[in-house]
Amino acid sequence: MDDKRQIEIVLQTYIESMNKSDPEMVRAAFHENAKVTGYLHGDLVQLSTEDFAGFVSSQQPSPSENGTNVEFEILNIEIENSIAHVKIRDVYLGITFLDILSLLKVGEDWKIYNKLFNVEKE
Prior knowledge:
This protein has a single domain (3-121), classed as Roll (Nuclear Transport Factor 2, Chain: A). Helix content is 31%, strand content 51%. It has helices at 3-20, 23-29, 49-57, 63-66; strands at 30-40, 43-48, 71-80, 83-92, 95-106, 109-121.
């Protein structure tokens, strides 16, 4: 399987983690040392992978159970050997986000290493 397809699978796992409020899927998509950073409701948010997994799992009932699945669009994927840069727009919990994701290839697996997010519409 080529790198682009592997990255698309990681992105799908990331989105499904939010749809299902599943912390294990967050851990599968993100590197253990990843950071999630951006402004939400005017406050700077800085989360570790574990913090983000906890936030995602706290959304109960899950968006999937509510019938409000995360909508998303991959805007760009750039791959350079063992690193990649992805721009994605998603609607999660009624908020439109623009995410800039940095991915790192660890062995044969791609992992999200950094997520910067911007709220486009609340």
